[in-house]
Every structure is written in C-alpha cells, then in structure tokens.
Amino acid sequence: MSNRMTNLLVPIVSVILGLLVGAVIMLVSGYNPLEGYAALWNGIFGDMYTIGETIRQITPYLLAGLAVAFAFRSGLFNIGVEGQLIVGWFAAAYVGVAVELPKIIHLPLAIIAAAVAGALWGFVPGLLKAKFHVHEVIITIMMNYIALHVTNALIRTVSDGGDRTENIFASASLRSEFLENLTEFSRLHLGIVLALVMVGVMWFILEKTTLGFELKAVGFNKNASQYAGMNVNKNIILAMVISGAFAGMAGAMEALGTFEYVSSKGGFTGIGFDGIAVALLGMNTPLGVIFGATLFGSLKYGALNMPNAAGIPIEIVEIVIAVIIFFVASGYIIRLLLLRASAKKKEAK
Amino acid sequence: MEYVIEMLNIRKEFGTFVANDNITLQLQKGEIHALLGENGAGKSTLMNVLFGLYQPEGGEIRVRGQKVDIANPNVANDLGIGMVHQHFMLVENFSVTENIILGSEPTKYGITNKKDAAKKVQALSEQYGLNVDPYAIIEDISVGMQQRVEILKTLYRGAEILIFDEPTASLTPQEITELIQIMKRLIAEGKSIILITHKLKEIMDVSDRVTVIRKGQGIGTVITSETNPNDLASLMVGRQVEFTTVKGQAFPGEEILDIKNLVVQDYRGVEKVKSLNLNVRKGEIVGIAGIDGNGQSELIEAITGLRKVKSGTIFINGKDVTNMKPRKVTESGVGHIPQDRHKHGLVLDFPIGHNISLQTYYTKPISKSGIIDYNKINDKALQIIKDFDVRTQGPGELARSLSGGNQQKAIIGREVDRDPDLLIAALPTRGLDVGAIEFIHSRLIEQRDNGKAVLLISFELDEVMNVSDRIAVIHDGEIVDIVTPESTSEQELGLLMAGHTGHKESQDLTKKGEDQHVE
C-alpha cells in the first residue's frame, strides 16, 4: 500500500471504527444508534442555523488549539490555555463595557486587550521556567485556578456584586448582520475570520521567520540552540507569551462574539483543555489544528441535538463523542493495523 | 571446524534499499571474529538480524549446525546469543545487580531475591576477572565498568556467543587495554565473540578472523594473522587509504587564541580548569592530549561562551571574549566542532539543511528583517553537501537519519564555511571510520594551510600525533607540557597525560600500576 493511500485511509478508518464502537455503546444502553447518529448529523449540518452555530463553536477551539500547538512546537506544554482564555475573555468584555469608542478602534482594542491579558498569563510561567527551571505544567495549572477566581472576583466588582457584566457596546462586538442573515440568525460572528487569519499567522511565524526557526530549534534541542548562539531563555518566554496571546484571543471570541458579556464561572470552560486534544489531533501544525478544531467543534455542538432529537441521555452522548475522538487520536494504532494487514496480503501472494 | 553460528547468504531489504546483500559470516567456537565495515555498511543490520530484531528476506541462520528462525531477541537469548550494545541499556539509578536481573528477576516467595542474584553476579565477575561490585549504582561507576555490567548481563543470561557492538567507542585507552584482556579471558572460558568495529588496530590486536562488508555486500573473510591494516582498510573502503596524514610544514604566524590563567568550574562548583595558559597561532594545529575528564570539555565551553569563566582571560584576535555570549564568540571568528554532535552539534529533528545554517540563519543574505528565505538555506545546504561530500538524500532529510560520519561532515562543512580564524575541533573523528577520518584530518590541515588557527582536542594519541604541529598535554585542568610530535613518543605522552612530569620513567611505571588499583 502506498504511503498516500495509508495517509488517506487512516483518518477514515479511525472515524468509522469510532462510530461503530459508539453505536455499540448506544445499542447496549438500549438506544437506537441510527437515530442517534442522524440526530448528531442534523445537529451539525441540519440547516443553515446549525451550520452557523457549529462554525461558531469551532472558532474558540481553533485559537485554543493554536495556543497549545504553538507552545508544543517550542518544546513547552502549555496546559494553562484555559486560564489564559479566561483572563482574555474578561479583558475583552471589560474593554467592551467600560468605554464606548468608534468600532474601528473599539473592536481591535478589545481583541488586543484579550491577547495582552492572555500573553501576560503566559509570560509568568514562561519567566519562571526560563529563570528558575520551574516546570511550566505546574505553574500553568495553578495559573488556571488563579485566573478563574480572580476574574470571578473582578466580575463581581465591576458589576456591583452581580455575577455578570452588562452586554458589551455594539462597537466592540464581533457579530455581523451579514453572517446572521446568512445563517438564519445563528450566533456566528466574524471571529472565525480572525481565527483563520491567526492560523496563517502561526504558520508564518513558524515557517518564515527567524523567530520561528529559533523557537523550533529550542523546542527540539536546547543544547544545540545555545551552542548556535540562540538565547534559549528569551525563546521560552516568547513562546509562552505568543501561546498565551492566542489563548487570550480565544477568550475574546466568547466575550465579543458568542456571549457579548462575561459571567462568573463555577468551573472551567473546558475549551482550553480540549485545545490540547485539538493540537495533538492536528499534530501541532497550523493546518492540522483546523482539522482538529473542526472535528471537536462539530461533535461538541452536534451532540447537543442527540438528547433532544433521539432521546439519548447526555451522559451516553458524551461517552460516544469521547469514543469517536479516542479512535481518531489512536491513528497510530490504526496505521499499524493497516500496515500489518497489507504485509499479510503481500505474504499470501 | 565446528561453527557455533553460521549466517549464510543473508539478505535484508528496507523497501527498495538493500542493507545486506548476500553476506556470509561463520563464527568458529572459541574465536574472536571481527566484523569490519564503514559506517552504514550494514554491520548493525546484520547483527540485528542475528539478534532477532530484523527478519532477513533471504539466506539462513544456523546455530551449532541447526537451522534456526530467530523471530525476536528472546529466541536469540535462548540460543545463547548475547549482545553488548554500543549505547548501554542500563538504568542509571539502579544497582549493578538490579540492572543485570532486570526483566528476569528471580523471586523467593513472590519477592525479588536480589541477594542470591548478587552472589551469582559476584561469582561470574570473579570467574571472568571483571572486578565489578554487584551493589554499586550505575551512575557512580565509570563507562568502562558500565560496559562490564553489560557483559555480565549477557553472561548471567547464559550467553555462549557474545556480540560486541563498537565496544571501544567511548572507552579511554586504558579501558580499551582492559577490555581486550577481558575478551581474551572470555575466549579462554569457552565463549565465542563477534566484534563489530571499524578500528583496524583493535582487529589486529584481538581478532582471529575478519569478515569484511562494504556497502551491504559481503566482501569476504580473512585470517587476521595473514593480513595487515592496509589491506583491511582497502577491503573495507574499496580503495587505497592513507594512514599517516600527509601534511607539509607549518608556518605559524601571530597569535589568534590567547588564554591566560583560566579558571573554570563545573556545574558542581569543582574547579576543572586550573590556571591554564595556552596560545594558538595562525597556521598551526595545536592538539590537546589528555584523558577524558581532565578539563577539556570545560576549557572548550569556556572559550566558546557556553560556560562562565571564574577568572582569567581569553583573547581571540586580540579581542577580549572572556564570558561573552556564544553568539558574540562565534561572530568574533570562532568555529566549533562540538564534542557531542547529537547534543550540541545538531538539532536532530531539523532537516540537515536547517542545521547547516544553524548559526547563520539570522544573517544576510539568508534572512532579511526577520524573514528567512528558505531558498537561500537550501542553496547553502546544497553547496556544503557537495563540497564536503555529505551523503544524504538532500537538504530536506532529517539530520537524525544521516550516518554519524555524514552528520560530522555536515558540521565541519558548516563551521569551515563560515571561514573562522580559530577552529576548535573536539573529538572530530569519534566513532567514524577510516575513510571519514582521513577526510576530516585533511580538512583540518587545509584550514591550517589557509592560515587559520586550529585547536584539536582528542583522546586518541594517534590522532594527536598525526595531525598536530604542537601538542599541549592537559592533566587535572592544567597544561603540564607542550611538545612537538617529532620530539615525543606515544609512551611519553601517555605518561604526561597520567600526570607524570619529568623523566623518572621506571619509577613512574610502578606508580601507574598503583593508580590503576586506586580507581
């Protein structure tokens, strides 16, 4: 079997296997898998409204995935995308409600605020890693909790004891009448354009700039990078800052597009953590992140339709979705099985 | 004659690439059989076939006359085949015994029975004169000792046939001598040995017969006592090879590198370089001879800016570079072929083309205002690959998949191409075959003849003697003497390296024996 054939077959076989095992789970739980999958399909592609909502769901996954992937490419495990996203969300919403400015200034300002907040949240673990060799996983996990509770407190402060802010001014919103009309008034917003531009930005940084060259070199081999005269510490900090900025922008998507406000949270959004899976599914490449985010966003959003349309309890739905993603992530095993099957065939001949 | 192992007409393919083509190797009982070939000739592949890691596409393997199918390493173990790997497979913070029993732990009432195992290890160690402490922790013992643990591991598992894969690559001359004794002892106790190597001297010293392979082809088997290093080298490379490097007279000019009273500490704060003075002039090669661990690494790291200097000064071209950042040192005209090419020399997961521009990626014409022109990187890579005969599929191939010799050629090409005034070459030929060594030595001499200063650090006396114009002997962080190759002998150098200054040779020899014991 040629390489290209295998590359094409692996994702297809993975998804089919995932769907099959998911079907078995639904069957033994006493639900009709055909109805379940029909509901899933309709939940993703049913009409223009659901398509719009699916794309809206994909948007923050794209940016969170980029954040994780960017750090991975620089040899860092940024598990703090969640926290960086939360502070970005708050910063964007705060700029959105605190002042009213012409849209051409207000909207970019709110997005930049989110990126800066996220970058700052990434800077701290980056600095600690570079200067004191503290492992970034520990710091970023802790920074997640700090982000969650600090923003909750700030939200109470700015809303005079309430648990959500006012809606942002229209001048800071990412919503677009054109997209709403196109998708039967879904919440699809312009953020998807920004997210796709950022995919291009990440590709450009990594593949075209000297900064990207250094980041990748440091990610692969710190000793050789130092030998070659690169500033390893500077690169570690920069990688975390840029990664944090992507994560902050993912927060801006929620603040300026989907919700247009920020409310205090009982727990994490999960988007930042799912971003890890998105990045890994996409093998940490910019294009791969588009694939991972699309898979994650579609399944997550489409799954919401399964309890309503097919009467499958949300717990079963979550297991089924997890199984499908599990199989896609196990592409390596599938590849191995395919290779072995083709080797057997060869022997039989 | 009885053969314990017969590998007959072995063929191994990887896709369209034929790694082993019709190779035959017959190991007699009680002999040391050398397997000789250049890097990438297919020696490791052949041994991996024997050890069950690869399945051959053709040919057959017989053990003690019986045709066998070695499906995996466990089968090889059961057949009494043991392998002493080049890169030791040891758990650093486990004891010797724990490492030896790893994977087949003896148990008593369900609990690992280390005590009996340690006794058995002790007994084996004594039987073969290995002198290994069963309770020592791996990270505390020397590389030579670690290798003996690897040997014990195979003996413990009942190996009758031992495969040594490049066993001397990381050993000091002293340890090599001891290893050779151990191998002879193993033979005396009835074992048989396959020795994989490309060092002709060792083959002449220990082996009974030699099987030569070249580019995957079996060239033939010769009896060691009926051949000589020159013939072996020609068989291996396929052409005549020069042994003593041809070089003309040196015409040294003004000083390029000037080190005064240099003190450098290692990471634990121990002084490894102690008030060291050294200079290297234009148009000469200064070789630093010394036993590993006498401050060579710290010295180079201090010159290149990778390690902080405690006191003293380093001048390059009259410019003070003491404690400058590596990039500033590089830009001051220093090229550096690092000691460990995998750790420092290359980003193994980068394409070889990227690696060739590892220090110049940010400079014009490759890069303008922070944007890299990868076409320029590619062009540069193609030029180096051509000029330095780097055998690779192209600039896009990962550095990891090149053979050691070709990786080293790429590094040397990269460093020489920047046209540095001072070229530091640390163990530039470590682990390379004669063809590559010859090439690298001639390149170093070419640098010298172009009026550059070359500082060569090597653990191999042959290399220091052949290539250097002056030899600085380092011992315990100090240059104890500076001699010329014409006025010294390997013996004198050996004594100097061991810390014996002056000329009380007979006395020193007895003292040397004692030192050995202390270790």
UniProtKB/TrEMBL annotation, chain A:
This is Simple sugar transport system permease protein. The chain crosses the membrane at residues 12-34, 79-99, 105-124, 188-206, 236-259, 271-296, 316-339. CDD domains: TM_PBP1_transp_TpRbsC_like. It is a multi-pass membrane protein. InterPro entries: ABC_transp_permease. It is found in: Cell membrane. Its main location: membrane. Pfam families: BPD_transp_2. Keywords: Cell membrane, Membrane, Sugar transport, Transmembrane, Transmembrane helix, Transport.
UniProtKB/TrEMBL annotation, chain B:
The keyword NAD does not apply. It comes from the Bacteria. InterPro entries: AAA+_ATPase, ABC_carbohydrate_import_ATPase, ABC_transporter-like_ATP-bd, ABC_transporter-like_CS, P-loop_NTPase. PANTHER family: CARBOHYDRATE TRANSPORT ATP-BINDING PROTEIN MG119-RELATED, GUANOSINE IMPORT ATP-BINDING PROTEIN NUPO. This is Simple sugar transport system ATP-binding protein. Residues 5-240, 257-501 form the ABC transporter domain. It comes from Planomicrobium stackebrandtii. CDD domains: ABC_Carb_Monos_I, ABC_Carb_Monos_II. Transmembrane segments: none annotated. PROSITE patterns: ABC_TRANSPORTER_1, ABC_TRANSPORTER_2. GO terms for molecular function: ATP binding. Keywords: ATP-binding, Nucleotide-binding, Sugar transport, Transport. It holds the Pfam family ABC_tran.
